[in-house]
Amino acid sequence: MYGALRWLASTLSASTGRRVFGALSSSAYHLLPNLRGVVAANQAQVLGLPSDDPRVRASTREAFELYGRYWHESFLATRWSDDEIRSRFICDGYDRLERALTTGHGAVLALPHMGNWDVAGRFMATMGKPVVSVAEELRPPELFDLFLRHRRELGMDIIGLSTDGTVGRQLTAALAQNRVVALVADRNLAGRGIEVEMFGKKRMMPAGPALLSLMSGAALIAAPVYTTERGWHCIMHEPITVEPSGNRRSDVAALTGKLAAAFERAISAAPADWHAFQPAWGP
Q1: How far apart are CA 55 and CA 44, in angstroms?
Q2: Which of 37, 72, 193, 279 is in Cβ range 3.0-4.6 Å of 204 for a Cys bridge?
Q3: Would you write out the chain's pLDDT as a tens digit for each of its 283 residues?
Q4: What is the signed CA dihedral for 58, 59, 62, 68, rounded to 10 degrees?
Q5: Cβ contact 183:175 at 8 Å
């Protein structure tokens, strides 16, 4: 299916492809009730409304539409010129990233699953700052290889999220080279994380972004991406900091809590643009 969708995006014209992917996402909304229920539950928590509220249904439908657009444009982004990417991807606060890099310790960009993080990686490559990122290892291996190839075509250096314990060391080494590490960080994939509160309910967030920042001295910058009519709008916020307590675990928890608050504000601004297609608050 992944290969077929990629082929469709590369074969059809951009306008036809957008309609086709829109139709596919609409079909998924109507034909996959279990998945629709997961998305509706997440949207309801964000909106503070019952899952059967008409506003939740409308936001859920829009979430499917935007997710279809995400996939279509992720595939197309490998074909766009650098100039087209920069004209369609507007980034406010980019100077904050540049200031962070003057320290020589690199920077950690933390993103929620919003807008299009693949195009964000492509944008960073056009700016001469290709990011290092992590990808969840998928089964079968052939699918993971397709994911890796696609993201490398977008100009990103990808590390597989394996259990061999080397991911942290590789990311720390990248930061020591003054690289930008970009992590989509609103889902806890490693099994261990930090409990935070988002939208009035406890959930788990990965400790990685905060831990990397504290260990390396790299700035931790929340950088949500929003879908716009013509492209995307990224906002790089001021670096998130905490007063050192002398206890690494407490500092990681405090920094992760502040990151969760930044994500909460970002998602509140565009709930349907949050691609939360798995239970965000547990089963």
Answers
A1: 9
A2: 193
A3: 888 888 888 899 999 999 999 999 999 999 999 999 999 999 999 999 999 999 999 999 999 999 999 999 999 999 999 999 999 999 999 999 999 999 999 999 999 999 999 999 999 999 999 999 988 777 777 888 888 888 889 999 988 776 556 888 999 999 999 999 999 999 887 667 899 999 999 999 999 999 999 999 999 999 999 999 999 999 999 999 999 999 999 999 999 999 999 999 999 999 999 999 999 997 6
A4: -130
A5: no
Sign of the dihedral defined by the CA atoms of residues 96, 100, 102, 108, in that order? negative
The dihedral built from the CA positions of residue 118, 124, 128 and 129, taken in this order, carries a sign that is negative
Give the pair of three-digit tokens for residue 11: 């074969």
The pTM score is: 0.94
Say which amino acid occupies 74: S
Q: Half-sphere exposure of 34 toward its Cβ, with a 13 Å CA cutoff? A: 2
